[in-house]
Every structure is written in structure tokens, then in C-alpha cells.
Amino acid sequence: MGRVVLVTGVSRELGGNFARRLAADPAVSRVIGVDVLPPRGDLGSVRFVRADIRNPVIAKVIAGEDVDTVVHTSVVPSQGGSSSTKEHNVIGTMQLLAACQRAPSVERLVVKSSAEVYGSTPRDPAMFTEDIPARRTPKSGFAKDCVEVEGYVRGFARRRPDVVVTTLRNANQFGRGVHSPLTDYFRLPAVPKPVGFDARIQLLHFDDMVACLHHAALAGVSGTFNVAGEGVMMLSQAIRRLGRPAVPMPGFAISSLGRNLKPTGLTPAGFSPEQVRFLTYGRGLDTTRMREVLGFNPKYTTEEAFADFARSLSPGLVNNHPVAALEELVTGALGVDRG
Questions:
Q1: CA 263 – CA 239 distance, rounded (Å)
Q2: Is residue 107 part of a domain?
């Protein structure tokens, strides 16, 4: 008999792609996909169950399906600081862990967290290992959600030492068709850049994130792991490779610009304080433990992941609007001169 896996967040691209891939693995007998909304695409042989992980009914799903592996992919950034997303991230994770704790069949738990738990400050190390704490504990947003989620996961691991618990702290996901606050930033026709700084960025290709979840679900290795492609890029280097003008401005002005651009749909989530700090100071991840302990090696480097994303962009249009007109919108929003 193969493994019986429950995957949360299958209505999103990551959860849906991962569930389909896992269901095709001969080492897996059944995959049950759970989400509040039905998936937009075909999940293949994945059995979809419409359920909210914030509801105790999730315990009945786990017990009724005799699930032995739970993969939690639905801790996600909010769009514009949505309180419902935070409730889903934190309260939903608490309910899911409570259900796992009561289910004797559960043997493995994989949780997708984020490297945002480290934050970004001028006092950060060159590369964060999993044992180095954040220099500045996140106080809000998605980063704070991830810190709280990881705290609950550690508590679960203490209460159920018989369960193999794997936490993945992934770098920003990139690749063709990926939409996130950071990819929306790079899609701007003129890209605001914190004046006086040139942040280091490290990325993870979307396909490698899917592959890492697959590997972790079947490997059964306990621990917390940084997950990222090899190498780093400078922010200025990334902007140049897109062939778009950089607009130097102070961090507070970038935050204001994000608020001005939200109604246009160019930056649906705006620029959060966490994102502005990341664009200012950057972040590097040591992935030694990922390769040597977890046994996973990404296919794409940071530069290759960014190049794949860049190839998907149209040079003449952004979101079906002429680039020249959008350059005026971005640079004129705060009265910044072009060039």
C-alpha cells in the first residue's frame, strides 16, 4: 500500500500542481485535495473535498480517509492586508494541527512556510542558516503569520514526537506565469528602487517548489529547511536584465507609490513594509541542510529562475497597456523625474 496524502490549498497553483504530481507517483495510493473553493483546473485523479481548514470538520476528513501524510501548502500572503487571509493562515493552521494531533493514522506533516520569517535588516548575516534567528522579529503581514505558524508546528512536534515534521522556508518563487507581490513589482514598466541600496535577492523556481514538496512528502525527513536556488542576484542587475528603467526613490516613497498603484491593478497588494525592507536590504539563504540532510537539489539557479520569468514578459505591453503610458503613471505618481 502506498501513502495516503492530504494536501491543503489545492485551488491555488502551487497546491493544485503539487497534488496532481503526487497523485501520479506509484508510491502514493490516494491524494485528497482540500480547499474552500473548487480548483479552476483539472486535478486528475486527486479527490477534491470542499472544506475549510478553520472548521473542525477537517478532523473528520483526515480520520475518514485514513490519511498518513498531510502537506500544508495554504499559508499564503494576503492581498492588501486581508484579515480573512491572516485568519486562514493562523487559525486554519491551528485547526489543521489539532486534527492531525487527534488522528493516530498521521505519520508525516509537511508545512510550507517562507524565508520571510528571517525578515530583512542591515544587520543580517550574508546567508541565513536555519538556526539563525531574525534580527528583527516580524511584527505584521505574511512574515508574522509564518512565524506564528512555525511556532504552532513546533508545539505540534513536541506533542506528537512520533510524527515526522518537515518545515520548508522557501525563497520567493519565480518562473513563467507566477504572480506574487515580488513578481508584480518586476512587472512594472518603470521599477522603483530604494535609493542608496542594492539588495541581494535569492529565488526559487516554481517547478522546484513543487518538486521539493513532492520530495519532502515521501522522504520523511524531520527538520526545518531553507529552500532556494543556487546563487544570488543584485536588484539592479535583475532590473537591467528586464530592460526597464529603474526609478531611485526612498523607501517611504515606494510604499506610497504602491498605495497609488493598487487601484490600477499593477500592484494588487501594494508594497508592504516587509517587501520594501526586502528590496532595501535583501536576503540570502544557506541551503546546505536542504541538499545534505533533506536530499533535495533544485534544478534552477536563482538567475535561471529569474530568466524564465523574464522570458514570459512582453517587451511592448504590461497588462495590455502601452509601456510608455505606464512609465508616466509610475514615475509621475510621486512627481519623480524619468531617467
A1: 24
A2: yes
Does 312 reside within a domain?
Answer: no
The DSSP string of 13-36 is HHHHHHHHHHHT-TTEEEEEEEES
In the chain, DSSP finds a helix count (H) and a strand count (E) of: 12, 15
pTM of the model: 0.90
Q: Domain limits at 118? A: 3-170+205-228
One DSSP character per residue, 63-83 reads: HHTT--EEEE------SSS-H
- Structure confidence at residue 317 (pLDDT): 45
Taking a C-beta distance cutoff of 8 angstroms, is the pair 205, 231 a contact? no
| Predicted confidence band of residue 322 (pLDDT cuts 50, 70, 90) | very low
Phi-psi region of 270 (alpha: psi -120 to 50; beta: other; left: phi over 0): left
For residues 139 and 189, the answer to whether their CB atoms sit within 8 Å is: no
Q: How many CB atoms lie within 10 A of CB 116?
A: 25
| Inside any domain, residue 116 | yes
d(CA 241, CA 294): 33
> Which CATH number belongs to the domain containing residue 96 in this structure?
3.40.50.720
Domain count, the chain: 1
CA pair distance 183, 180, nearest whole angstrom? 5
In a domain, 317, yes or no: no
Residues 6+ apart with CB under 8 A from 82: none
Determine the Cα–Cα distance for residues 254 and 193; give it in Å rounded to an integer: 8
pLDDT band at 82 (very low <50, low <70, confident <90, very high): low
